[in-house]
Design brief:
The protein is of the alpha/beta class and about 325 residues long. The protein contains eleven helices and 15 strands.
Amino acid sequence: MTTPVNTEVNTDSKQEKDIILRTIGLTKRFGKLEAVKDLDLEIYRGEVFGFLGPNGAGKSTTVGMILGLITPTSGSLELFGQRLDKHRWSVLRRVGAIIEEPAFYPYLSGRNNLKALARAIGDIPAAKIPEVLERVNLADRADDRYSHYSMGMKQRLGIASTLLRDPELIILDEPTSGLDPAGTKEVRDLIPQLAHEHRAVFLCSHLLHEVELVCDRVAIIKEGIMIANAPVRELLTKGQLLQIKVDNPGEAASILENISWVNSVKIEDDYLIVDVPKESDSEVNKALAEHGIYASELVSRNVSLESVFLQLTGGESGD
């Protein structure tokens, strides 16, 4: 059974007015399937919040409820301090979202695509279009056809489209999926900048390395239940990975697997990779030595968000 990891946000530096999104006991059932169960979240202005989970964990259902596309079975959802079910249109006008790949007219330029969208939305000043193009570093390619854009440019134009109404909450679902390294870096660099402009960014992604680089806090859900909610730094400092070289790794792995405080053990290229609490190197070495096994090499590795994720979800990968 997975033990939930919950870390309280430091409310001394957080005001009620800084809470952009709050869910209380948010639950959604589809027949007998409980897709999301009693989800409690608070997302603050100025932060990038990562929302993670294995395939089928309930991430898409949660996003659908936040955007008013799915009606919760029970619980409540507030945006900007107002109940979504009572103030749907007024609060959703303050939210921008890209779900999956953004869609634009391929034969129009980036600029004209935004003009068409602005007309459809209404009440968007003409000056806003060059402003958002500049904001996502597309000003010099604004008059090129969308069909000539790279994947990274298409994604940045999608983000520009969410900025037309100057949203206070931006929801991004897999914004770097399918991008080459250059495009990934462009989008990755942009995300925290958006949050620091007095917004919040709600980021769903299966690229855990990217999440680790850009997110301030993350929540992890599994089978609809939140099993972790903490600042990224705190999750990464809860343990360490030890890379150990021994003559008989199979026997050593069996010994360590039976120790209660050892989180996981695996063998990679004849090395043991052991996930243990911080500052437990000597205890691991002692446990092996007591069974006549002596390490010729014992090196500490940095814990990654991926290793934490796999530990908390029982080895299940993301979407």
